[in-house]
Amino acid sequence: MKMKNEALDAKPMVRQPAQDIPLYASIDVLVAGGGPAGIGAALAAARCGASVLLVEQRGYLGGMATVSQVPAFCPYTDQMKPIIRGIGLEILEDMKRSMADEFQRDWQGRYDWVPIDAEVLKRLLDEKMAKAGVNVLYHTFLGNVLHEQGHVEAAIIHNKSGTQAVKAAIYVDATSDADIVWHAGGPLVKGGDEGELQPGTMCFVLHNLSRSTFLAHADQTGSDLRHSIREGIAAGELKVAREWAGISWLNEHTAGFNFGHVFGIDGSNADDLSRGATEGRVLVHHIVQWLRRSVPGFANAYLGTTGEQIGIRETRRIVGDYVITADDFLGCRSFPDDIARNAYFIDIHMAKPTSGMTMVHLPPGQSHGIPYRALLPVGLDNVIVAGRAISTDRATQGSTRVMPNCFAMGEAAGTAAALLTKQKRSSTRSLDVETLQRQLVHKGAWLGEEINERLRTQRSI
Ligand SMILES: Cc1cc2nc3c(=O)[nH]c(=O)nc-3n(C[C@H](O)[C@H](O)[C@H](O)COP(=O)(O)OP(=O)(O)OC[C@H]3O[C@@H](n4cnc5c(N)ncnc54)[C@H](O)[C@@H]3O)c2cc1C
Question: Which atom of ligand 1 is found nearest the CA of 39?
Fold first, then answer.
């Protein structure tokens, strides 16, 4: 099941001479990737006492929320109560507290679809990392790993200082493309049976809007944005495949947009990412022109920013000790080794302009468990994967992939890594999972009524 990169293997080769590489750091836990999963992992591991290095290719944290301007956090609740708690909820509430009074009033006590202010988030995350003692190395790409017999010995990083190595006891792969597992030759799958992948979206932020005009028009006419989009498509004035746009208002004049798709982009392929960037910007320009002409309140829209990278919903998934399936999702299954729970709906965007969306919701109050085993790539003993690339089938990835879940998985991965290093164990499978669960519950995570009730009264270590 190992994923070969046939396109690369078919190319002419040059030989790189053997090279001694400076050792940049020797630490307990290396976290690769500073998105929601990496943030959760780095903070949790450092707060549990581990020495942590987080490497991130951009100059800020946040992952899709900041890199690609994804404009809102998906629900933290199961429609009845918050089920994503711990570090994820702490970040949500701290972000709200850092916003203007009006935003705080609007979103107080609300946990679902909270708009994201990317600049507030970046600053807040820097502060949290510094306070927790996480060593963050920006502008640094993890480009390879040295591994032997299923054990990662070192990560190879590239940045302005050159090529260096990092040695860690545990490696948390939060790259969302499972880069560490890929370099270590671990088993991976990508997309659907025919290689289909969800499309990318170039999200963007518009200023100089009038929310009150926009909402008043919708109130008076009963015609919302979806209606305008439908009309625009029918009139041949708007060239998008789906009659839908996500708008997240940051204030009366500024909103983030998740609007339009770019098809056929594999986010683990650099050529595709480059095409996604240029095609995405062309599409955003087209959409903004249309919004100015067609939507009341948007006549003076000013394009503030597009994502640094096109937003990517799906690439590689690891094959882990357990593969979470759609049956597990639909059956709201719990596992003895649950480290988080998920209630977000299966939300698979169409792979082609002509195919449809797949959406499957759970009833209010229902969720399924995410077992620790789904974070452990088969054949690798000191790597934990958190975030978009965990071990699921394709349908379930369409659900587990969202940011609140990634925070929770990251927190579990980081806590597990810290416990392992504290116990001087390097095999992720030697961890006593109940100890991990107890630690998570004590730090505020919700692992379901049964586990939380059982472990709440027991002492953490
Ligand atoms: C268009 C779009 C809309 C979405 N809408 C929502 C929404 O409304 N709400 C929601 O909650 N979720 C939404 N999602 C899903 C969600 O944003 C992602 O699935 C989630 O951010 C994944 O988190 P992650 O931590 O696994 O990875 P990411 O957020 O992708 O972060 C990975 C980080 O790792 C870094 N990285 C990657 N490889 C390397 C490497 N080799 N070396 C160093 N750094 C590396 C990247 O730069 C990035 O910062 C959306 C996604 C897209 C694309």
Answer: 25
